Each structure stands twice: as structure tokens, then as C-alpha cells.
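Lab notes, practical 5.
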Amino acid sequence: MLDVAGLTLTAHEKDIINHPNTGAVILFSRNYQDPGQVTELIDSIRAARDGAILIAVDQEGGRVQRFQNGFTRLPPAASYVLAPELAQSAGWLMAAELLAVGVDFSFAPVLDIDCGISEIIGDRSFSTDCPLATQLASAFRKGMNAAGMAATGKHFPGHGAVASDSHLTLPVDGRDLDSIRAKDLLPFKQLIAEGLEGIMPAHVVYPACDPHPAGFSPFWIQQILRQELAFDGVVFSDDLSMEGAASVGDFPERARLAQQAGCDMILVCNNPSAAMQVLETLPITQDPIRERRLQRMQGKPTMTREQLMQSQQWQQHSTLITQFTQNHA
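Output from the prediction step:
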């Protein structure tokens, strides 16, 4: 999964999108001006690809909402404790608006439990209370699914108990496996049982459990996630450009280790030369299991943007969420 630089594609980007190792494009705020422009950008990305390609974005709400102008402003996840009945509405609204411009999925919901320690997670978590966070995240995912969007839970096995930001450094969580099982794993366990389609591991190391950061760890991905929790969806690496990934080696080595650990799709963002290194050095492989998992991430829009805006469902949900956000965000 790669990114692009601006509001339109360059000729070079079109070539990269058609590389056999490219499987998806993630969009950022810099790629977004308004719904019409981003629809055209997404259409041009799909046209550049000889075959299927996934389009993703981070559109959680709160401080992580890449598309804003022309989209309903969503509150941070922590706000839904004040109105649990809105979590499902918000999940539907977020997904329906993205699907209507051609995005397949948003990397949501956040399944980290807020422990009052991590500023990078903070109000991106649904709650400090594990059962409540699980209930709200489950409702949010149900809303996404109802709109036609697959969900990705992050950041496995839990980023909420470390102060460091994995964008800037490698956080270390000293807790033992029993402590993590008893708390952080519970939302993942519940949503996996409900059919969660994707998971993103954390660039966090848990030395009492395993010496490798979770996204490069066969213990976390294969033993705990695949075997113990019986997860059969897509494992997306977190961005290999983050400092939390730097400890394991250069970019080709990061990609190799992430894939070896069990990641189905590797993210390399905001570093075009690193993305090219990974594209050129990672073996081109055919994997029917991986393909089946990734196909489930394809968006299933039910309405064009014009139809969505005119629908009573969108008008009701958008009004509710907008009023709630203005009062509580």
C-alpha cells in the first residue's frame, strides 16, 4: 500500500500504481480538496491499474479525519460514551460518505483501550473501560458493514498503555501476556468473533512476551492472532516509514520481516524512494489465501454521492452526528 503526492496523479505515479507488487493506495489530507476532486483522483488511480486495487484512508473522526470539506465532521471515538446509540450511526455515516466517492475502506475502528497514558491514542480510543470500548467499537463496525464497508481494528495487541508515539520512536510495553490478554486483547477477540475483516498490528515491542515489535512478530501475528484468536482476515502492517519500525533494519528488510511474520499487506507512506525500494526488492508472489482476504476489503457502495445526499438516512444521521460533534468534540 503506497501513497501519492498531490491532488492529481503524475505519470511516474501511474507507472508505480501498475507495478505488480502494488495492491492499494492510501490517501491523506494533501490528496483531498473536495468530493468531486477526490472522486476524479480515485477514478484515475483505478484507471492506472491493470487489475484490482484498493483505496484506503484514515477517517476515524476527531483529530484523525483526512477528508473534511464536504464530509460530515465526526467526533473523536471517546465521545460516544456520552451517547452510545450514536456509534453505529457514525460508523454508517463515515463509511457511506467514503464509499460514495470511491474509497474502499477506512482504517477503523481503533480497538486500543485508553489507559490514560498514550497521547497518540487518547480520545481515539472508545473508552478506558474495556467492555464499553468493545461494545462501542462493535457498534461502529456494524454501522460500517451496513453501509458496505469492511473494518480494520487497530493497533493489535494494544497501543494504549505506552506513552511514546510509534511515529517518532519505538514504544516499549513491559506488561506480561496475561495482563494484555485480560484487557487489551478483549476488543480484538470480540470483533474477530463477529467477523472483523482486517487488523493492523502496533509498532510496539512487548519484551515480556516477544523481542520483536508486534508488526514483525510471528508470535503476535501467527501464534496469538491467527491461532489463538482464529483471525482469518487481512493483517496490514502499520506504516513502515514510522520510527517504530526502524529498529528492524532498512526498508526492504522491514518489508521482508513484516511479510515473514504474517502481514498480508505492507504500508510504505510518505517516502517515495522507500516505497520504490520495497516494490523492487519484495518477491512478486501469488497467494490465493491473501487474495481472498484482500477481496473482502473491497467497498460495496449502494449509492452515488448524489443519491446519498438526497437520502433520508444520510440527512438524519448527518444532522445527528453534526449536532453531537458541535456539542461534545
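Observations recorded by the TA: The chain is about 40% helix and 10% strand. The domain at 11-328 is CATH 3.20.20.300 (TIM Barrel).
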